[in-house]
Amino acid sequence: MRRTELCSDLYMKKANKKRMNKILEEILIIIPFVLVLCILSRCIPNGTVRLNIGESGISEKAIALTFDDGPSGYTEELLDGLALYEARATFFVIGSKAEKNPEIVKRAYDDGHLIGNHTYSHIDFYKSTLTEIEENITKGSDVIEEITGSRPLFLRAPYGNVNFIQLKQLDSFFVHWSTSTYDWFKEEEDYIYKRIMKEAKDGAIILMHDTREATIKAVLRAIPELQEQGYELVRVDELLSRNGAKIKMGVPYRSCKYDRGAVAF
Question: Which residues pair with 207 in a beta bridge?
Fold first, then answer.
């Protein structure tokens, strides 16, 4: 009897040890998932702060032309062309350049274009601390507000470099792009023009730079052709709010088609 009890005890101990090992294995598997969830909860934009612009009433074929890194010596020629064709655009200006050319920024604003923030000194978010980024954004916004009387609501991160944690914590309405003309890579009028015409689709946000003469010539060549094709050239805020959706902070928007929500990431 004692031998039977002893065997039973040994069996129970082995079973309990096996059960404990299994529990430990499960815990070791669960812990990384919990850690990942905790990290994601800090990184993923919560979308609690939203901008309700209301429906913009733009047409079923619309494109947002966006220009980075200005103002420059070519920006006024672009503004002349936009005025001629009654087209509107968005300028993500660098604060330090705006300080040197306030009259150009003011004219763009007065002409009805959207002025967005591209930081004060084109700081790379991937190579900077959160404090440095916040200070650079604030300094850029201060310059724009002093010139236009209006504080910019929209931000484009230089190079498009922004990670999930920064999106969560910077409290900005981010604008990315659906397509680039790569005018920073190939400064050639025909190449840029063909990129614009090829990538022209309803809801597109097209990235360009008003710091290059070839870009200005290409876009002014493309605008009347796009209009002939029925495209309305609008500001980013008009495009993103075309369907009456509320724009969220911490989300990098890329496009917004007619009768559909704005596309991010």
Answer: 66, 180
The verdict on pTM exceeding 0.90 is no
Q: Match 């605008």 to its residue by tokens.
A: 223
Number of domains in the chain: 1
Mean pLDDT of 49-69: 85
Domain that holds residue 221: 50-264
Q: Judge whether 25 lies within some domain.
A: no
CATH of the domain at 203: 3.20.20.370
CB 210 within 8 A of CB 184: no
Catalytic residues: 68, 209
Torsion-angle region of residue 44: left (phi > 0), alpha (psi -120 to 50) or beta? beta
What confidence tens digit (pLDDT) does each residue in 176-229 have? 999 999 999 999 999 999 999 999 999 999 999 999 999 999 999 999 999 999
Residue 68 β-bridge partners:
92, 209
